[in-house]
Design goal:
With 529 residues, the chain is α/β, with parallel strands linked by helices. Bound molecules: zinc ion.
């Protein structure tokens, strides 16, 4: 029999086996038990968090002849057909390859008549954000007046690309990234069932590499198991398989880029693809490599910040000496953007090659004049104003006007930033800051260290995190950091918080910018930095 990947083999068959999405499972089970189903569901979340697995379970459960506490029995004719992929009731489609209006019209034709057997037609549309505008329009008409026997489950990793008209017709479920402990627990269950011997530390390293995605973690586990066929897997073994091989490839990719060797870089990429690599992973792993490189440049305690063997850290340190932090950051920017853009196009290879050409030939890039222009206008203003005074009647930073005739601020006195009353969501952040901080320390030590150096302020209902130096600011602006912060907010406050990172202009102070310290009244225990 062909080898079945662990992810497929251990796809949850009942709701009890789903790990890490308890709230969603509870709601869906209730709906099934009480027969209060919606006609359109939207499952949102990063890859590998269980969207498709839960959609399939749900589709089977509502057509099952003998459901057990909301879960499918997996034994009746309807369940078996769905499990074999021969069901007429459960239809899966991938919008990435079926994104045209014709594909949606075909669905509309199919649902003109009620199902011959089973209760519902369930359409599971994966990557629904890939639909063309016309396809969305056609879908919308069906969502407005759906036949009673049709249920749509739309899954997406890109909620921003879903038209609001479609959003408003769906019940939305946000899938969380799965935490390390849950992932380790699930993997331990699987390795025990498979008779695979592996150390705890190795599992938790694999879970960390999986970044909240069960699918990614299991496929990494697969890699280790295949490599150490039958042998007990230690932490060092896992590092060996998941770390060092890649590091070498990425180090030589970086070498080609730094030498402006486009051909060498593209050849290397093609070799990696021929050896079975996947473009999307290649790019995101390369970003991680660059991130580690940057960390080596800015952190003293690198051994505890990245999961790497000391040999690899030594190699990384050597590579870090030959490249400036600014250049590393430029590469990170280009490749993170690339990583995001790759979700939108089937022409992934072309995009990657374009990015390589772009970083190999910096002259082709649009010069970034924005910060340059800003500095000139600051200088101009200083020259024009001559001596720094506060004109009478000019508002203070907090918005309180200075009464005419009041003396100008003494030169060495900082204008006082008054604290306005905070709106509910920002006050919640302040009230829970200690917990938020602890969570962040656990999930993203790097970001925690940067935010500790920043000032946390607010503008109306926008949380503003202000930095006075560029490196911590750039770290905090990365997608990885933003994801960590979003996750911590959702976990501690149960809701999203709008936030923005800001960087002070050269020589500007927090007070100059009007950034009140909203955490000023919180006492933190003294800790060494
Ligand atoms: Zn059944």
């Amino acid at each position: 029999m062909a080898y079945q990947t662990l992810y497929r083999k251990y796809r949850p068959q009942t709701f009890d086996e789903v790990k890490g999405q308890d709230a969603i499972v509870r709601v869906l089970k209730n709906q099934i038990n009480n027969n209060r189903l919606s006609h359109a569901y939207l499952f949102v979340g990063t890859r590998g968090t269980g969207k498709t697995s839960i959609a399939k379970l749900f589709a089977r459960a509502i057509n099952c002849e003998n459901p057990k506490d909301g879960s499918p029995c997996n034994e009746c004719a309807s369940c078996k057909a769905a499990l074999n992929g021969t069901s007429m009731n459960v239809i899966e489609m991938d919008a990435a390859s079926n994104n045209g209006v014709d594909h949606v019209r075909r669905i509309i034709d199919e649902i003109a008549y009620s199902p011959v057997s089973g209760k519902y037609f369930v359409y599971i549309v994966d990557e629904v954000h890939m639909f063309s505008p016309n396809a969305f329009n056609a879908l919308l008409k069906t969502l407005e007046e759906p036949p009673s026997y049709v249920i749509f489950i739309l899954a997406t990793t890109e909620i921003e690309s879903i038209p609001i008209t479609v959003l408003s017709r769906c019940q939305r479920y946000d899938f969380r990234r799965i935490d390390i402990a849950t992932m380790v627990g699930r993997m331990r269950h699987i390795t025990d069932s498979e008779g695979i011997e592996i150390d705890d530390r190795a599992l938790s390293y694999i879970a960390t590499c999986g970044e909240g995605s069960m699918r990614d973690s299991l496929s990494l586990l697969d890699r280790c198991v295949t490599f150490y066929d039958g042998k007990r897997i230690s932490y060092d073994d896992a590092l060996e398989v998941l770390g060092s091989v890649d590091t070498a490839v990425y180090a030589s990719m970086l070498g080609h880029i730094m030498n402006s060797d486009v051909t060498g870089a593209i050849n290397l990429l093609q070799e990696a693809m021929m050896r079975g690599g996947e473009l999307t992973y290649f790019v995101s792993d390369f970003v991680m490599y660059l991130r580690n490189l940057m960390l080596v440049q800015v952190t003293d305690d690198i051994e505890n910040t990245v999961n790497m063997s000391s040999d690899n850290i030594a190699i990384l340190k050597e590579a870090a000496q030959n490249i400036s932090p600014e250049t590393v950051m430029r590469y990170i920017r280009v490749f993170s953007e690339l990583s995001r853009d790759m979700n939108y196009t089937p022409q992934k290879q072309v995009l990657v090659e374009m990015a390589i050409v772009r970083v190999c030939t910096p002259d082709m890039e649009e010069p970034d004049l924005s910060s340059f222009g800003e500095r000139i206008s600051n200088l101009e203003e200083k020259v024009k104003n001559g001596i720094k005074t506060v004109p009478a009647g000019a508002p203070l930073v907090s918005g309180a006007p200075v009464s005419p005739g009041s003396p100008a601020t003494a030169p060495d006195e900082k204008p006082q930033v008054l604290m306005p009353a905070l709106p509910g969501e920002i006050q919640a952040v302040v009230d829970n800051w200690k917990v938020i901080r602890e969570q962040l320390k656990e999930t993203d030590m790097l970001l925690f260290n940067q935010i500790r150096k920043a000032r946390v302020s607010a503008e109306n209902d926008l949380l503003v995190i202000v930095f006075n130096s560029e490196i911590p600011y750039n770290i905090a602006c990365s997608d990885i950091s933003k994801d960590s912060l979003n996750e911590v907010f959702e976990k501690t406050l149960g809701s999203k918080v709008r936030f923005e990172m800001r960087l002070l202009k050269p020589e500007q102070t927090y007070s100059d910018g009007g950034y009140a310290d909203i955490l000023a009244n919180i006492n933190f225990e003294v800790e060494e930095i």
